[in-house]
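Weekly sync, protein design subgroup
Attendees: M.S., D.O., the rotation student, P.L. (late)

Item 1: inverse folding check
M.S. brought a backbone from last month's batch and wanted to see whether the design step gives back something sensible before we order anything. D.O. pointed out we never logged the input encoding, so this time it goes straight into the notes. Structure tokens as presented (616 positions):
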């Protein structure tokens, strides 16, 4: 019989007494650990001369696993102990930047408390765990956190950047409608709505507010692009279409479930695009055995559920961290779907873009899963700081890509060959990066990852987080390569509809471009919009491309390739789709020129949101 079981007989009373004693011991143990957590989260600690406890000395001067001092309790106890801070973080994200004085609204505080108590208790949120991350990669994340905390406490140490989380998804992830609520609170305007109350920003605030006393130990970059699916996310990662001086991420979070679920070709989306995204994320730091950690995160509340199976499969096949907020609350939403007030109090809206409650819940869910992962690895390692001492059977190799359980090929041989190719390539790069024999392997790997060049001769993708956000930015980028233009114009807004892009709004609109190749360039990618609107019906763009070889005009033998892209689909949503084409005649070598003509051959409306001419 469980020690939690009650009984009315004498023996049951003894068991109840024993249970109480055990509970008191657990609570006392937690209070001691809570004291350690508070020390850890207070980044500005006394100087070494005034440090009076071994714990403070360990945090300030100890090894890379000092972060484990904060994760010695069970996750449910941690979650309960920091409940007030977790809820206050949700309130602060909704009030600090808004003039509506929501912080003084007792109804708003009561609603956040109700949301937490009714739907996000530890036993409820743990339903979100699809697959745990590997111990090795989790340990690396804790090392990065520890070094950052140590640096903030003593800036004479080597500079340590924040743990960097990159989130990529569609309009839901970007924050569209994240201010919607049923409390009568004023919904912020477009600019602040997107930049403040989206769940990735809330996640950053949660980490730093709850664990690190407000210091920037964790940084979250939200590069979500409205209307984008996994194929767009893969392109963004593959071609590194990042802001200037972008720090390579330690964690990449996929949140494309909403738009992938709307795809007509589900097989392509689930079995090609998602694996392609994962490989592109891993390749950002290909020479690091562990980083980045890739997280598959389901934040979609639509009643189509087939995307959940794809998320489960990807998480398991690749050994990723898998999270599903849907698993926490969807059963409650669908069981009460006709009760508008009930549903809106949980998420904010029934549509593809749920409101404030959904974004608060998403940040809580992702945060909980990271706390769980950190606690797990700290319990497993028992304080060791050595990767070599982890007696783990986890696969450290990065996956070769598409799922192959159903194939009859030798998966193991392919996997080993893939790892050998990576090893050989990284050894060559490492030798070039090794300035002196005193450089450590970690320093060399960091140098390699930070110095990776873009594989593109020319590339841009419109995103509010990059240097190409406004219509003016798009116009400037296109003018770098345009040789002629009739009927195309850069217009739109960074966030609200219509979003910035290069638009054709008349029949037979056409433009030409010329790009001098700075490297071997084999592929052209066009990011265009597909939609169901009447203005998109029967629209088609035709593109012909030729290569002008270095040292003269085009050869008589030079091939010309022609491609066609349609702008309409029946799905009741607007999405951006990358169309990747192989350039003719083997592509362009360094010094060659790429000449392309774009013409609207059907219809009178089309949108281009990005172009890329790249090595692969």
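Designed sequence read out in the meeting:
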């Amino acid at each position: 019989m469980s020690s939690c079981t009650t009984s009315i007989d004498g023996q049951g009373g003894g068991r109840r007494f024993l249970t109480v004693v055990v509970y008191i011991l657990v609570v006392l143990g937690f209070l001691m650990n809570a004291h350690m957590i508070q020390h850890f989260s207070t980044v500005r600690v006394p100087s070494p001369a005034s440090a009076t406890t071994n714990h403070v000395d360990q945090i300030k001067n100890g090894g890379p696993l000092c972060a484990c001092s904060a994760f010695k309790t069970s996750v449910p106890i941690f979650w309960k102990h920091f409940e007030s801070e977790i809820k206050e973080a949700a309130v602060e994200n909704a009030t600090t930047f808004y003039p509506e004085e929501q912080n003084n609204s007792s109804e708003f505080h009561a609603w956040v408390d109700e949301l937490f108590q009714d739907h996000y208790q530890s036993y409820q949120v743990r339903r979100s765990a699809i697959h745990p991350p590997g111990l090795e990669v989790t340990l690396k994340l804790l090392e990065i956190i520890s070094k950052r905390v140590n640096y903030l406490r003593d800036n004479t140490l080597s500079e340590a950047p924040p743990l960097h989380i990159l989130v990529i998804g569609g309009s839901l992830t970007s924050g569209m409608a994240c201010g919607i609520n049923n409390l009568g609170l004023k919904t912020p305007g477009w600019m602040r709505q997107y930049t403040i109350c989206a769940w990735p920003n809330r996640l950053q605030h949660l980490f730093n507010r709850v664990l690190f006393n407000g210091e920037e130990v964790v940084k979250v970059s939200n590069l979500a692009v409205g209307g984008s699916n996994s194929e767009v996310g893969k392109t963004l990662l593959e071609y590194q279409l990042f802001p200037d001086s972008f720090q390579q991420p330690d964690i990449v979070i996929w949140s494309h479930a909403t738009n992938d679920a709307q795809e007509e070709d589900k097989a392509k989306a689930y079995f090609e695009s998602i694996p392609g995204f994962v490989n592109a994320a891993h390749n950002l730091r290909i020479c690091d055995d562990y980083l980045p950690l890739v997280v598959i995160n389901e934040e979609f509340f639509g009643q189509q559920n087939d995307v959940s199976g794809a998320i489960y499969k990807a998480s398991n096949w690749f050994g990723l961290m898998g999270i599903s907020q849907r698993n926490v609350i969807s059963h409650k939403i669908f069981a009460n779907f006709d009760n508008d007030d009930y549903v809106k109090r949980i998420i904010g809206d029934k549509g593809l873009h749920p409101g404030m409650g959904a974004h608060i819940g998403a940040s809580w869910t992702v945060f909980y899963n990271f706390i769980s992962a950190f606690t797990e690895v700290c319990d497993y390692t028992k304080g060791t700081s050595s990767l070599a001492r982890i007696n783990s059977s986890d696969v450290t190799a990065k996956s070769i890509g598409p799922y192959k359980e159903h194939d009859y090929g030798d998966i193991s041989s392919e996997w080993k060959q893939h790892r050998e190719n990576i090893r050989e390539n990284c050894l060559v790069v490492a030798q070039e990066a090794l300035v002196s024999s005193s450089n450590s392997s970690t320093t060399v790997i960091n140098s390699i990852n930070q110095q990776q060049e873009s594989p593109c001769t020319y590339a841009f993708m419109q995103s509010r987080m990059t240097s190409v956000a406004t219509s003016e930015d798009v116009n400037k980028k296109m003018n770098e390569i345009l040789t002629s233009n009739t009927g195309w114009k850069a217009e739109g807004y960074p966030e609200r509809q219509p979003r910035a892009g290069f638009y054709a709004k008349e029949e037979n609109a056409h433009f030409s471009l010329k790009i001098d190749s700075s490297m071997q360039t084999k592929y052209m990618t066009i990011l265009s919009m597909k939609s169901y609107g009447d203005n998109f019906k029967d629209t088609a763009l035709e593109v012909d491309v030729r290569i002008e070889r270095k040292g003269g005009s085009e050869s008589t033998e030079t091939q010309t390739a022609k491609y066609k892209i349609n702008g309409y689909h029946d799905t009741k949503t607007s999405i951006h789709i990358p169309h990747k084409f192989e350039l003719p005649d083997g592509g362009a070598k360094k010094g060659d020129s790429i000449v392309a003509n774009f013409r609207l051959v059907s219809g009178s409306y089309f949108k281009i949101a990005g172009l890329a001419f790249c090595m692969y």
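Discussion: The first strand starts at residue 129 and ends at 131. The chain is about 40% helix and 15% strand.
Action: P.L. to compare against the previous round before Friday.
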